[in-house]
Fold this sequence. Notes:
This protein has 463 residues and is α+β, with helices and mostly antiparallel strands. The protein folds into 3 domains: 4-31 and 43-101, PmbA/TldD fold; 114-153 and 165-222, PmbA/TldD superfamily (PmbA/TldD fold, 2-Layer Sandwich); 229-460, no CATH class. The chain has 10 helices and 25 strands. The model has no long low-confidence stretch (mean pLDDT 94).
Amino acid sequence: MISHETAAKVLSAALRTGGDFAEIYVEDSSLLSLGLDESKLEQATRGVDGGAGVRVLFGNLATYAYTDNLDETSLLAAAHAAAAAGSSANGGAPRTIDLTTKTSPLDYPVAKPFDTLPLTDKAALLHRVDATARAVDARVRQVSARYEETHRRVWIYNSDGAAVEDDRSFVEFRAQVVAADGNVTQFANEGFGGRLGLELFDANDPLALARTVAEAAVRMLDARPAPAGEMMVVVCNGWGGVLFHEACGHAMEADFIAQGGSAYAGKVGQRVANPLITYVDDGTLPGRRGSLRFDDDGTPAQRTVLVEAGIQRDYMYDLVEARRAGRASTGNGRRESFRHLPMPRMTNTFILAGPHDPDEIVQSVKHGLYVKSMAGGQAELAKGDFVFNVTEAYLIEHGKLTAPIRGATLMGNGPAVLSEIDMVGNDLALDPGMGTCGKGQSAKVSVGQPTVRIPRITVGGTA
């Protein structure tokens, strides 16, 4: 961190050419990443990073400069660089900045800090995971295991007089298994994580996960080729929310709304989904990967209802987009690091629970597809069209899950799907804590939903 005295001096310098708002973002982060492949520890990376960025707003224009050094001279140089876009050589008398530390009522405690477990024990855990997965079946051919811990502290100071701090610890574990039988090869990939310390492993067993992933990969060896065509689809709870994150959530971020490049632009107060659907973004949930005390603009994290009973209620704003719209930020300003400008991004975004029992939803389908796991996808924001790869799915025949299928894709339109969903389960779940969103910058997020039924959607397959 830097002293309030230094921060005030740098902010005053940043405003010297007539800027109307200035901010300093300071970051100190450390990372440990371990990776095991082919029963060998192939990756062991430990690193630290840190620096500061200075942003100046001239109306709706934002300028930015950053430095790897936190000495006063370097910070002032960054302030002068960011201020250089101003039209006035002298913005008037120097501004006096009185900084007041703001605290958050949100608490994300770390019960077991990362250093309570030696590095050798963390590496040994990956070897046990490898052995456990290989013992499931002789057809298990490859096992990969990953452990990652990140500690990131940020301090934000601005010319409105605010000084805030957030201390963010994240841990993540994942396993991937490849199984092969003749010419058929299948893989499965699962994991868990969150904004917490090593207490994550008190509630999550990595060896049990290794068995589950290996069993899934082996099970998919007997999968049928995916059918193709329009059909009824049931999407599972939890990770299923990634579809709506990509196809709908991004289109509700205020920068896309302001550009007019979103299918949801100008829709506040209008029906955009089935009345069963309430869609929220909540950055205040304990332990979740997208949770914050303050966002990367220094705005307190909050819960924002985006769609309520099918009606569009709000969008997700960072500081700049909120200023342009003449309203308050929703606490969705996020940046990858001090080298990046913040932008509107999701935190933990999910569909709320509905009235239907998940078994009832499956039993209601005479012929269709049950999607248990999805990989990456693409969405076209202006229209909302999407394509997603399905990694694990099962046929539904006469209300029962039957054969596993492979090679399926889901193709459709996000706004249309939100409107057409006609059953929503009472089994809301968030993802297991591994979500990373890309939008030019990476950001840790969570997604979620209950089980939902989509009456018709195009399934791409090979059968």
